[in-house]
Amino acid sequence: MAEILVLYYSVGGSVRRMAELVAEGVERVPGAAASLRTAPKVAPVTQEAQPGIPPEGAPYCELKDLERCAGLALGSPTRFGNMAAPLKHFLDGTGAFWLKGTLAGKPACVFTSTASMHGGQEATLLSMMLPLLHHGMLIVGTPYTEAALNATRTGGTPYGPSHFAGTADDQPVTDAERSLCVAQGRRLAEIALKLRG
Question: pTM surpassing 0.85?
């Protein structure tokens, strides 16, 4: 079984919903299984921001989850055209994997949600790819063979699925966005299985 890690950080719930849809796509591929994980908030100075176990939703990701996965889907809300600090903080702790090449050759994809239509979706997706490229991971985009990519009027890019959540985070994931998330998970799992031979 190829385990695909779907690692995300979500505040209002939109990225979490996208992660669930990506995981649904993974699960549609025979021989693949999705593992949903999240990252805790980053604490200022020495205060503890989160309890050791999340009160709800996916468990917190541990380095061993990243080490054993056959592929990675990484999701974050947009923060000024970049990923959110908690996810970046988690990735900053993977230096030992970089030294050993633990993640080299594994496929990875990225997804995001923004409060405004032009709130930096593509910049965020590209910035999320940078640490993955440094690890030698193989980036899996969303091809235009996915009909929803041409039909969407909200989120969706060739760099990965995206979602327009609105400033109050009150816009549900659209049919096109949903389709792109599921397709991305399926594509990531299929590629992971092919790479495993």
Answer: yes
Q: What are phi and psi of 9, to 5 degrees?
A: -130, 135
pLDDT category at 57 given cuts 50, 70, 90 is: confident
pLDDT on residue 46: 60
